[in-house]
Amino acid sequence: MPDNAIEVRDLTKAYREVVAVGSISFEVRRGEVFSLLGPNGAGKSTAISVISGLLQPDSGDARVMGHSVTKESMAARRCMGVVPQEVALYNDMSARENLVFWGRMYGLSGRNLERRVDEMLKAVGLTDRQKGRVATYSGGMKRRVNIAAALLHTPQVVIMDEPTVGIDPQSRRHILDYVKELNRQGMSVLYTTHYMEEAEELSNRIAIMDKGKVIACGTRDELVRLVGEQARVDLAVTGEPEEAAEAWRKVAGVSRATVEQGRVAVLAGDSNAVVPRLFERAAQLGFRIGSVEIREPNLETVFLALTGRALRD
Amino acid sequence: MVRTLVIAAKDLKQILLDRRSAIFLVLMPVVFTAFLGLAFRWPSHDDPRPVVGVCDLDSTALSGQASTLLESGGLVRVEQLGRAAAGKADDLVRRGRYDLVLVVPAGYAESTGTGLALQAVCDQTEPQTQVALQAVEAAGARLAISARVGRLVAGVIGPGASATALAEQASAGWQEPALSIRRETTGPAPAKKRIVANGFAQSSPGTLVQFAIFGVMTAAMLLVLERRSRTLGRMLSAPVTRAQVIAGHVLAMFVVTFLQGLLLVVLGQLVFGVDYARAPAGVLVVLAALSLWVASLGLFIGVIAKTQEQVGMFSMIAMFLFAAGGGAWFPLEITGRTFSFIGHLLPSAWAMDGFQNVVLRGLGFGSALVPAATITGYAVLFFAVAVWRFQAE
């Protein structure tokens, strides 16, 4: 049994001249939840597509439970369950019919298939609605069936590509709790998201991706330490935020100041000392500060420090 | 193999769940068969006269008179045949396309009176043939006399002959014609040799072919929706090969088309009086080949179309092209040689040939093999291109 559930080595994939993933490497250890965190377009889904066998890499390779996805594709696919970003179900069929179909695709049959379908419907809370057409389900219900379809064959590795995008908070909570439960059952999970909170809550380790590269990888605390415990100060100002950011960059103790969605985000090592200076400088220039929010260092701060942009940009 | 069957079963379930399937796969074909069958009449249907095909290999002014004389008699309906028909005269008579085929041999005009004869290919056991024979004999005799008189007048018989002598020699042509009509029989007549070509003999196989092609829309739509809903991607991340996915979809399309065709064949036989049962194995072979080709066409459209709208557009283009061009709307026989040749570049024309060899020409199982093989060839071609595109994506 290999130590790593997934190993990615120097993986590169380009679409014509656009390099979606450029020589990335990471590994997902057995029994851990590993998140790929990055904004839209960072290359997370492309990486997932290569690992799940949908795309051929231009160079490099990935191994799932020791099986190369390029050379032993079938063996690798049998070990994993893939939850795609979009709801990939047949809308004109019921949840049960969908699960039976996908179960058969993974080689299940007979009583074993029926038993697993019952278990999964119960696990995602859809036993009562199992005979309704998927087209009549809410977004959250569809997402839950989407996940169940990937778990029917009890895979050793689960790959989830942004499974909570566009759903209500209740369904999101349900999914996050279920991922934790899967992990408790011993499944290794590769989880992609652009929500920092999800990555922080679920993951043992996190790789931050931007523009097709892994720019940092480690536990949450290891990543935060990369930026030296800097706090993030968000300020709403009257007037032009760009001018305020420009002025505040020169204030002592400020390591970075950028504009995000009309507000100025300032990174500072000692926020207690820096905030009065920001007010002082604003008064000198005639700005008024409407609100101030100080956030402890987190993955958002890390991404801002490493790229100069916010995760949601 | 199991996964292929699972995919095919899933496709069939989706097609059955779609209420439009009942309309497009069953109701409309039945209505069209009935409507077109009642509306369509073969060109010869209302003309009770025997049909004589004239194949003129001599191509002289004299030989051209043969058709004129036959038509002016009014006893028979005359159709001009190409030179190639000389070798297929027996077949044309046996199929019931002509009551008699008259072959004017090359060199006929030059040799009148020296033994080169017109050839009449017919089956003398048929009552209609007797009328045709009489008309042909009369026309042949007139041709021979005309030729003989022409040669006398031109002085071919000999210079200085008296008028009495010329008259005697011309008269000898009547008493002992120098040309004769050779009669051939095409063998013992089968019990049901003569086929009455009603409108359903065209509309039943025609509608079958047309709606088989139209049916690809349903199947191709499934493929496009599968791609757009990402279920295809999900399938390919499961332990399933691309070949299994393709085979599953093709199998489903094949089954749908075959069952639809079978329904229309049974309906044609029982309700519309189209005699598919004359050679059921031949009909099934052609139907199987047609279904295979249509499945490949559906796969091809499903692969190249990106949206549901494109599926609709491509399917309609395919239906119009293959149905109209292949003789599903009207028989290619009435369109002339060029259009018929172009039509036979399409597999749908071969499907029509295969069906009509049985229901219209009274031929057996063997007559279905060449059309079926040709259609299968097209199926392989379309399949190969579709798989190539699918792999490329």
Helix content bin of chain A: 25-40%
Alpha carbon gyration radius of chain B: 28 Å
Widest beta sheet: strand line-up of chain A: 6-7-8-3-9-10
Percent helix of chain B: 55-70%
Chain-wise SSE layout:
The complex is a heterodimer of chains A (313) and B (393).
Chain A: E1 4-15, E2 18-29, E3 33-37, H1 44-51, E4 59-64, E5 67-68, H2 73-79, E6 80-83, H3 95-105, H4 110-123, H5 139-151, E7 157-161, H6 169-184, E8 188-193, H7 196-202, E9 205-210, E10 213-218, H8 220-226, E11 231-237, H9 241-248, E12 254-260, E13 263-268, H10 271-285, E14 289-295, H11 299-307
Parallel strand pairs in A: 3-8, 3-9, 6-7, 7-8
Antiparallel strand pairs in A: 1-2, 1-4, 4-5, 9-10, 11-13, 11-14, 12-13
Helix pairs in contact in A: 3-4, 3-5, 5-6
Chain B: H1 2-17, H2 19-39, E1 51-56, H3 61-73, E2 77-81, H4 89-94, E3 100-104, H5 108-111, E4 118-122, H6 127-153, H7 163-175, E5 181-184, H8 200-214, H9 216-228, H10 231-237, H11 242-270, H12 280-304, H13 308-325, H14 337-343, H15 347-359, H16 366-392
Parallel strand pairs in B: 1-2, 1-3, 4-5
Antiparallel strand pairs in B: 3-4
Helix pairs in contact in B: 1-11, 2-8, 2-11, 3-6, 6-7, 8-11, 8-13, 8-15, 9-12, 9-13, 11-12, 12-15, 12-16, 15-16
What does this structure look like?
The complex is a heterodimer of chains A (313) and B (393). Chain A is of the alpha/beta class and 313 residues long. Chain A folds into two domains: 4-223, 3-Layer(aba) Sandwich (Rossmann fold); 230-296, Alpha-Beta Plaits (2-Layer Sandwich), CATH 3.30.70.100. In chain A, 37% of the residues lie in helices and 29% in strands. In chain A, the strands form three sheets. In chain A, strands 6-7-8-3-9-10 form a six-stranded mixed sheet, sandwiched between helices. A four-stranded antiparallel sheet of chain A has the order 2-1-4-5, with helices on one face. Chain A has a four-stranded antiparallel sheet with strand order 12-13-11-14, covered by helices on one side. Chain A starts with a strand and ends in a 6-residue tail after the last helix. The model of chain A has no long low-confidence stretch (mean pLDDT 87). Chain B has 393 residues and is of the alpha/beta class. Chain B folds into two domains: 2-41 and 199-392, no CATH class; 51-184, abc type-2 transporter like fold. In chain B, strands 2-1-3-4-5 form a five-stranded mixed sheet. In chain B, strand 1, helix 3 (61-73) and strand 2 (77-81) form a beta-alpha-beta unit. In chain B, helix 8 runs antiparallel to helix 15 (347-359), helix 9 packs antiparallel against helix 13 (308-325) and helix 12 (280-304) runs parallel beside helix 16 (366-392). Chain B starts with a helix and ends with a helix. In chain B, 44% of the residues are buried. Mean pLDDT of chain B is 80; it is low at 175-179 and 188-194.
